[in-house]
């Protein structure tokens, strides 16, 4: 059994400007298989930079409010929102609320730096 707690994860600034903590990644957790799971945090008034991933990504919002942009479309998101982002889509998210926007990011296959491109 693998068990991790969010308060024990180390955050780092991702290429798109978001604060991320890797929860599961095959490079650290072989049992993760071909997926990765990260916990993202975006402060109020901030947004990530537009980017394209070579792999699919799913966002699941835990708390906060924001707008997710994908290929010219915009969608308001909040707690319990789940959004599928297909590979190659131009995407970014902005925090439009007064609190941190906290969301989970699932990638398949697992996220890798060389598959994450500015858009």
SSE layout:
Layout: E1 12-13, E2 19-24, E3 36-42, E4 51-53, E5 56-63, E6 66-70, E7 73-77, E8 82-85, E9 90-95, E10 101-108, E11 116-118
Protein name: Cupin type-2 domain-containing protein
Domain Cupin type-2: 40-107
InterPro entries: Cupin_2, PKS_Associated_Protein, RmlC-like_jellyroll, RmlC_Cupin_sf
What features would you describe in this structure?
It is a single chain. The chain is an all-beta fold. The chain has one domain: Jelly Rolls. The chain contains no helices and eleven strands. It has a six-stranded antiparallel beta sheet, with no helix packed on it. A five-stranded antiparallel beta sheet has the order 7-6-9-4-11, with no helix packed on it. Strand 6 and strand 7 (73-77) form a beta hairpin. The mean pLDDT is 95. It comes from Desulfoferula mesophila. InterPro entries: Cupin_2 (IPR013096), PKS_Associated_Protein (IPR052044), RmlC-like_jellyroll (IPR014710), RmlC_Cupin_sf (IPR011051). This is Cupin type-2 domain-containing protein.
């Amino acid at each position: 059994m693998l068990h991790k707690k969010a308060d024990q994860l180390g955050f780092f600034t991702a290429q798109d400007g978001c604060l991320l903590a890797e929860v599961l990644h095959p490079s650290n957790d072989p049992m993760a298989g071909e997926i990765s799971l990260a916990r993202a945090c975006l402060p109020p008034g901030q947004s990530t930079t537009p980017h394209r991933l070579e792999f699919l990504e799913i966002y699941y919002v835990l708390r906060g409010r924001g707008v997710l942009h994908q290929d010219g479309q915009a969608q308001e998101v909040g707690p319990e929102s789940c959004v599928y982002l297909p590979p190659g889509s131009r995407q970014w998210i902005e925090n439009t609320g007064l609190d941190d926007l906290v969301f989970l990011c699932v990638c398949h296959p697992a996220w890798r730096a060389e598959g994450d491109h500015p858009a």
